[in-house]
Amino acid sequence: MNSGSKDPVRCVLSIAGSDPSGGAGVEADLKIFCLLGVYGTCVITSVTAQNTLGVQRIYHLPADLVGDQIESVVSDIKVHALKTGMLGTMDILDVVCHKIRRHNLVNLVVDPVLKAKDGSILLEEDAVQLLKSELLPLASVVTPNLQEAEALSGLKIHDVEDMKKAARLIYELGCKWVLLKGGHLKKDAVDVLFDGAQFYEYRAQRRNGLSVHGTGCILSAAIAAEMAKGTDIPEGVAKAKDFVSSTIAHAVKLGRGLALARLFVPFPADKSSRKDVD
């Protein structure tokens, strides 16, 4: 990991779509970076019209413009960690991979966003294979939810043991760590972290019953922020999950649809939920 001890200010780059509701996408990422004490930069891949009710329209930016944004940031500012979210098209995905390799960008967190909660397609189906073959091998951490993990692994996931099987298959695609999110399991939410040798489990009780917008974005951004600060992966995931739990516990209902995580006031983290598993 790039410790960057000579750089007093840690910088994180978010490459993702824009969400005008502020609950997900680069808008949420920048708020999270600020709350966690790192400097946030961003590259917008797609502009969406969305709110707490769903996604109404999507416009993917030209791939060369996405590439130019990345070039502008990383040629001028030292990036200590980065995350990808919504990438939209094969052309955008290809450019992002090229720029990451060209500039040797490290500490990459990949949130493999495929669909919105309302089912809207956020990555074209013909780009999924490129995601698996080109982007995941560049990733330090990949953070799929259950549906994304099924798409990446080809397995149906019903329980924690299925999650571990899928994590092994996703790890074999070339990433260093897999964090498979089990928030949609019927019982308590269990996330599984795997480094190719050891599993870690992170358990949390379900909170206030609200369905919250953008939790995947929040988690991946928080992990990237911790990586930029030099936190090791298991501890960074634990801190990120505690941060997410706090924002969900204090979520606010501002619109007519999903609740929004509270990203405008920092909350003390709960006790770490990590449990090492042999």
From TrEMBL:
It catalyses: 4-amino-2-methyl-5-(phosphooxymethyl)pyrimidine + ATP = 4-amino-2-methyl-5-(diphosphooxymethyl)pyrimidine + ADP; 4-amino-5-hydroxymethyl-2-methylpyrimidine + ATP = 4-amino-2-methyl-5-(phosphooxymethyl)pyrimidine + ADP + H(+). SUPFAM superfamilies: Ribokinase-like. One of its GO terms (cellular component) is cytosol. InterPro entries: HMP/HMP-P_kinase_dom, PM/HMP-P_kinase-1, Ribokinase-like. GO terms for biological process: thiamine biosynthetic process; thiamine diphosphate biosynthetic process. Keywords: ATP-binding, Kinase, Nucleotide-binding, Thiamine biosynthesis, Transferase. Catalyzes the phosphorylation of hydroxymethylpyrimidine phosphate (HMP-P) to HMP-PP, and of HMP to HMP-P. This is Hydroxymethylpyrimidine/phosphomethylpyrimidine kinase.
